[in-house]
Amino acid sequence: MIERVLDAARARATAADAHWQRVERTSIAFEAGRLKACGISEASGVNLRVVHNGRVGIAGTTAEDVDDLVARALASAELGESLDMVFPAAAPLPVVFTQAARAAAAPLERLTAIGHELVKRVSRDGCQVNVSIEREVAETRIANTAGVDATYPATGVAVSVDLTRFAGEDVLLIYDFYAGVDLPEPAELDALVQTIEDRFAPALRVVGPPEGSLPVVFTPSGQAAILLPLEQALSGKSVLQGVSPLAGKEGAQLFDERFALTDDPLVAGRPGSRPVDDEGVPSRVVPLVERGVVRQFVYDLETAARAKTASTGHGSRGTFGKPRIGYSNLVVGPGASDARAPASVRRLGGGLIDGIADGLVVDDLIGVGQGNVIGGAFSHPVALAFRVQRGEITGRVKDAAVAGNVYELLKRIGGFGNDGRWMGSRWAASLRLEGVSVARR
Amino acid sequence: MKDRLRAALKASRADYTEIRIEHTWSASVSYRGARLESATASEDRGGFVRALNRGCGWGTAAFTSLDQLLPMVARATELSRAVRLDEPIHLAAVTPSVADVILDLDGDVRGVPLAEKKRLLEGYNGEMLAVPGVVDTVASYRDEITEYWYANSEGTQLHELRPEVALSGTAIARRDGTIEKGLESVGLRRGWNGVHDHAAGFREAARRAAALLDAPTVKGGTYPVILDNELAGVFIHEAFGHLSEADFVYENPQAREMMMLGRRFGRPVLNAGDNGAAPGLRGTLPFDDEGTPTQDTPLIREGILVGRLHSRETAAKLGERPTGNARAISFRHPPIVRMTNTYIGNGQGTVADLIQDIPLGVYACSAWGGQTVLENFSFTAAYGYMIRDGAQAELVKDVVLAGNLFQTLDRIERIAGDFRWNQLGGGCGKGGQSPLAVTEGAPHMRIEQALVGGDVPA
Hints:
Chain A is an alpha+beta fold. Chain A has helices at 2-12, 66-79, 101-105, 108-122, 186-203, 224-233, 236-241, 301-307, 406-409, and strands at 15-31, 34-52, 55-61, 127-144, 149-167, 170-180, 206-207, 212-218, 261-263, 286-290, 293-294, 315-316, 324-325, 330-332, 358-365, 377-389, 392-397, 400-405, 413-416, 421-423, 426-428, 431-440.
């Protein structure tokens, strides 16, 4: 379909690019330990962008009417602002592992077997276990009138487990997931089970929260509140809009020397791995923060054109709406090379709790993403957190909230843990921050 | 289309089969600052088949190629057979409906040129940009009309046109390093006639953003808290509504015990419910996505838990009646138990009455968002005021409410008589399905004691 779309667009517009994707998904749901539902979905769609009279327009469809699609894109361009957007020319693409034949070929029984195994290993008396398994087989094609015509296949497997325990009015929820291009290896399933076990035992004892300005260890799954402000502030779009607190500070030492953040689309087999972005720009590794110094903001074609710079290959696009800036795989911390090592089983706290007289390990927070995120200030109740006293985890803390400012806290990192792991498209180890406000209620 | 659905159901070899087909036309316009981000029109269509066989689980198939309808019915049937269950799935009985329901399109948005939609939003965006102190805005307009067909093997056949419009604006004010926001949001199950006359709301949002630049951060601590209509609505949806969705309890004896009907959840002032049949609201539809008619379902009456929200499966499992709450955000998803228009019932008096005897408290207004993890919740108010000596005092910012659901419901001590439906945009997310059009409504209410996050003194 993409050829017909581009041909029709070429005849009526100055330039055009199109993104086509077909995704077949198989999903399996275990509820309360029982296999409950199986589903498939098959969807394809095309997103077309045109440049017409120096203005940019966009349209998307899952239907098959090419003329209508082009007409809508042109109507959109009539309203668009003038922009000197240049589509990339064809270029060699890096080789990236995005498709695992065995994941694509795995029959339903193979996928349900993973679920049965996890249910068996995670189940406990008085607890409910839900498991979901999803397998995706996708094909993506990006083409433009400047000569790009890139196609790549991809597979994806996501396995998630949650364990819920009700005891009176106390509800305990522990959750973990695996996501990758291939089926999980036995070691990766072991790590999943270990994560749940590691948290379950100390969670059975509920202790009162500490209070004050304290050291807090944020586990890999507990770091969203710390990273989200940075992700927003490093977007070229935030810079263009004048809302990024990091704008104009490239080259300045803003954070602890040990802090680094890297966007890595080339790492093998992760959900964000890809040879090319959704606008036809070849993928490359982009250091965003190195040794605490901001190095690079990320751009897609449009924001790059407006900022008079080059796209960093961060165009992300679906069937509907226009391309937006999106990260591929984010690697947090100093050891970007660790992120290429295989999964390992590591303990809660990542070895960072020794020497903490009184503090917290935060595994999950409530309400991340609400409020004025980019400003860096956060204040969240804990969903799952543990108290640390005299270097030991003494129990689960319920009625506590943590608060602070990310840009300030990252100036004095107390250490990175030895529990680095992939959480979908993000690699992180536990992170110890000093002087986090902890309140009780 | 109706004939194709009938033929496909006839060809199905499953014990129960249902098919949804949706064809959606939508348009959206967005501004960032003075700049048009995009103005675009989209077309989306596809279908969803769900099949159930005796002794088996659900098999589902979603697809964008409508010529695949027959093979997809076969696939769903096959997938259902692949799931063997010891405990069979039953569906509570629903009288089959045959209906051609054309909701009032109220000005068919498909007949309005994209340029006019752009002009409308440009005006609202301009209202925000004109306010001193505002350095940036995000504004959006979105409309859609979905032509909807539903049929199942029990004889239900529905055909509907579902309209929806939404407007939203965020004004961003900045001075030195301080950034503040103000939000306006409108979501209606209406057409083009519903999107005019909203300039004042956008202006107000921008003025509030600018005013917040000078507002202090609320001092963290425990206070008597008044929630305004919007925040009270978000509260009942997030903190209580999700627990009343029967799929949360139906497979779990402990959870069922926690949500046992007859249990006291609050004081006698507290009444709450969910009404999918309330006229003219965004969460309103004549039928849910299992073909069950929508209704008003009381959930809490005088503080006592009296009901919950059901799909046909959860109703059968718990021996209760379906409530018309099985909803899917689109043909890409199965129907799951969801809210529609969730409310706190009216009380008595005015907000001034609630405030007058509070020496020191917080009046929390409007919501940036809210999240609940089981019995714990967190809500971020868009802004708030201190209450001092029984009167509304200075504007404060960063008002985050956190607490335990059970304790907090039990601390709702007074409810005013100023009920209002909040016709907001946005939507609800659950099970990977977001955003679902829902509405919330509430009067002002007073919580005896609640934890307000803010600056925590070290």
